[in-house]
Amino acid sequence: MSALTELKTKLDLLGTLGTITIGFMPASPNVIGCLQEYGGQAIERRYGVTGVGYEKPAIQLVFRGDPYDYAGPRTKAEIAWRALAAVLPGALCAGVATIYHSITPQQSPFPVAPPDANFRHTIGCNFYIEKEPS
Asked: Could you give the domains of the chain?
């Protein structure tokens, strides 16, 4: 599984964040979250291991709310930010066997763009991850 799929599994288990998509945020519904990849860091090699020792992807998590609602997506982003920042080295969660060494937030949740034409706010946060290959 990809890091996006594995993180979605973790976030879905929280049960409070609603629908989260991977890679694309559709125009509807208003209230939705989306996990996206962006340029991560170089892989790390391990002595005695052929190929990739550790992957270091970068992930952005964005939540959108109803028109004029800033607090809703901001609250969801904060919940997700705290949950991912609290991940300890080891298996991420039930259903994910991949070993995660760290999930490091790059900043606290922030508006990723001005409100859209429908007055919906999008609040997001970025993470650097270090994990063993899936």
From this structure: 3-131 (3.30.2000.10)
